[in-house]
Amino acid sequence: MNYQEKIEKTVEFIKNSTYAVALTGAGVSTESGIPDFRSPRGLWQRFKMITFDEFIINRQARQEFWEMKKELLPELLNAKPNEAHYALAKLEKMGLLKYVITQNIDGLHQLAGSKQVIEIHGNNREALCIDCGRFYKIEEIIEFLKEDIADVRCSNCGGVIKPKIIFFGESMPEREFNLAQTASSQCDLMLVVGTSLQVYPAAGLPQLAYHSGAKLIFINQTETPMDELAEVVIHEKAGKALGDILKEFKRGC
Ligand SMILES: [Zn+2]
Fold first, then answer.
1. What is the CATH number for 46?
2. Is 114 found in the same domain as 95?
3. Which of 30, 85, 158, 224 is most exposed, with minimal Cβ within 10 Å?
4. In this predicted model, what pLDDT tens digit does every residue of 75-116 receive, in sequence order?
5. Does residue 103 sit in the same domain as residue 57?
6. Could you tell me the distance, in angstroms and rounded to a whole number, from the CA of residue 161 to the centre of ligand 1?
7. What are the tens digits of pLDDT across the range 41-77?
8. Residue 59 and residue 176 in one domain
9. Which residues are CB-neighbours of 124 under 8 A, at least 6 positions away?
């Protein structure tokens, strides 16, 4: 199949499905300027990643983490959704997509208009005190950081504030992950977009969908270890491919 045939085939699969979901990863947001953690120039090369335990126990590690955030958060808050986010939001609006399950923590799906978003790795726009549970918007945290507070603490109880992202060594948010598993086992079509499927348990979701009888469509710039499970594999940027899929829908209407 050539590229255009793959796009047409994908549209056909979406039209014929009754319960389609999307699983998205970093590749959906790179076109919005959000760096991919795993790319050669990604964040893991620039900053040492810390584990959940280190964050809770080690004041020094926490300070380094907030130093990194101080540099990255303004970048994140300026990021805008791209064609990939808008296309998925549009498919939901057209009643063709039930959920977006995302590994991304940038909140761009919601900004693009997606309503049913399951964030399995949490999100970067909110934070919580781990002691009293007080909720903080990221803008408040940025204000703390601007005041050069090295160890960001809860203004209510002095506890450690943790962004609502999932750290290494931290378990998945239970409610979100259960929802993602249910959607994956009940869907009849899963669009897997912008993820190289190397991080579990997220990478297990397409397998769960496949073994529950769903068809898989992969859109990713590079190969994934699961390409052979998919009906259609499109090696292309997420924005371009999803944009073309949407155009094909309009052409057919
Ligand atoms: Zn507190």
1. 3.30.1600.10
2. yes
3. 158
4. 778 899 999 999 999 999 999 999 999 999 999 999 999 999
5. no
6. 7
7. 455 445 566 788 998 999 988 888 888 888 878 777 8
8. no
9. 73, 76, 105, 106, 107, 138, 163, 164, 165
How many domains is the chain built from? 2
β-pair type (117-119, 99-102): parallel
CA of 162 to the centre of ligand 1 (A): 10
Q: Cite the active site residues.
A: 121
Q: How far is the CA of 249 from the centre of ligand 1 (A)?
A: 49
Q: Please tell me whether residues 128 and 219 are part of one structural domain.
A: no
Dihedral over Cα of 203, 206, 210, 216: its sign: negative
Q: Which of 165, 113, 119 is closest to 24 using CA atoms?
A: 119
Ligand 1 centroid vs 160 CA: distance in angstroms? 7
Environment of ion ligand 1 (residues, CB < 5 A): 129, 131-132, 134, 154, 156-157, 159
pLDDT tens-digit series, residues 12-24: 999 999 999 999 9
